[in-house]
Amino acid sequence: MDLDAVKEHSALHAKPSGLVLQYGTAGFRTKAEHLDHVMFRMGLLAVLRSKQTKSTIGIMVTASHNPEEDNGVKLVDPLGEMLAPSWEEHATCLANAEEQDMPRVLLDISVKAAVSLQQDAFVVIGRDTRPSSEKLSQSVIDGVTVLKGQFHDYGLLTTPQLHYMVYCRNTGGQYGKATLEGYYEKLSKAFMELTKQASCSGDENRSLKVDCANGIGALKLREMEHYIAQGLSVQLFNDGTKGKLNHLCGADFVKSHQKPPHGMEMKSNERCCSFDGDADRIVYYYLDVDGHFHLIDGDKIATLISSFLKELLLEIGESLNIGVVQTAYANGSSTRYLEEVMKVPVYCTKTGVKHLHHKAQEFDIGVYFEANGHGTVLFSKAAETKIKQLARELEDKKRKAAKMLENVIDLINQTAGDAVSDMLVIEAVLILKGLTVQQWDALYRDLPNRQLKVKVADRQVISTTDAERQVVTPPGLQEAINDLVKKYKLSRAFVRPSGTEDIVRVYAEADSQENADSLAHAVSLAVFQLAGGVGEAPQLEKIHEGCWKIKPYYQLLGMPFPSPLHNHARYFAGFPTVHMNGEGGGDLTQPVLPQQNLG
Ligand code: 16G
Ligand code: ZN
Q1: In terms of CATH architecture, what is 449-531?
Q2: Backbone angles phi, psi at 53, to 5 degrees
Q3: Could you tell me the distance, in angstroms and rounded to a whole number, from the CA of residue 62 to the centre of ligand 2?
Q4: pTM of the full predicted structure?
Q5: What is the pLDDT of residues 161-193, one digit of tens each?
Q6: Which residues surround ligand 2, an ion (CB under 5 A)?
């Protein structure tokens, strides 16, 4: 390792002194202008990881669903998986080493991880469409080359495409060809084969509206469009020609605001979906005839896909085990439906794809989805071999079912959640089962829920157990949550420190939206009080300018209402919304009629 060269080049990507960043749930993420040194250093680290694993390593430059001004970087391990936890620690150490210490830290890592330095290294790089991404990926390349690693820069790619490339390269092409064309061909062939099996295809014009979050998904779906045109016509919105990345659109916006993205023309009962900024998440939705918005999130996607797979397994009479993996954010109705109606075992892990992915590997067929729309299906090697064998040996209907399973294996991107691949699986299942989007939505009804954020001095004072469903510290917080939850029907609530933002997240679910809101606010206040809240106590949730959602949670906590915090609010008794009068001065004791348009 030529440490003098490392030092010299590092100076061109100098670390702002004092800046501390953490390799979080999905790599490093912050404002793009703070990331140059991180990119260079991750280039260095990828070379070490490649030498150590004697495999190709991936680096993706993206900040996913975060604002356009942000950026981020993550490393992809040999089988297309997230970086191993011990290397996340190395990544954090290297990124935070002050300029003069960096070469020593690099050397320490290579010793600790027993990297054979004379081994060759190969790194593949991808980036999203952010204005900062091109320059930052150049810094990655500087890092790779200074350690004499070889590389291939794929340029613009979706995150899951990069995962795919890494896996293809490390399996000698068995998984597919490590080119964009290879990716499009593999997926489209499987999609066309699968949908050919549908008994009622052809009589319906299959079309789907796709909100691409003004991101990379638009470019890549455009490239893919003609490969699938015979089976599905896609109409792209927010394709990046006008709007800003992830701004008022994309999967994260739609899921968290539970409303349609801007820039999408929706007619009633049309199937629509949204990707996130790097196209590794997808959610579906539609407007009903009354113009009401219906969200179909990752939980319902998991339900659709796993029920389809289970039916195919029943058809071929094979007892391969199937399991669904969720996080605490999964809607209670989805878990109940999967367990009680579909009789599929459900497991819960901590938030973050790597945890779900890991758990899903325990099954012959492991379906995992986060409610936010990130997910995929994993087939064990043994299951794959068995299915392929059955597709050759069985006859008639059984053979057809086995062939379908074989095609699903090729259609799903097993390396990571992939909006494009998931979209095609979903579309194929809807065609094969002859389901409309409404029928899919009607599988079960989501319990009303609410997510809130609370700012505290140090979010690490909150530690959790039981897949983040129970708080361990600070003392008293779990008891407070338990007491609050008891006051509502069908309710559940949990809190966890975010892995991507400096806040604590609160989730609550209950029998009505009002109660879910109320419980979420009450829990937020408990967090604020018991976990060192900073600034103002949790504000009520803003619905639109001048309008806030409220239930008198003060009463629940034994506080007087109206509280001084809301002395500009006019309160309508029994109605859980407060309309704040911008000039102040409304009379809190006088009920006002609820306004139309509550957002
Ligand atoms: C990251 C994770 C996502 C998780 C989210 C939670 C990956 C690829 N992405 O975006 O799975 O849901 O973080 O964020 O792992 P939070 O910790 O801020 O709630
Ligand atoms: Zn993403």
Answers
A1: 2-Layer Sandwich (3.30)
A2: -90, -5
A3: 8
A4: 0.89
A5: 999 999 999 999 899 999 999 999 999 999 999
A6: 64, 276, 278, 280
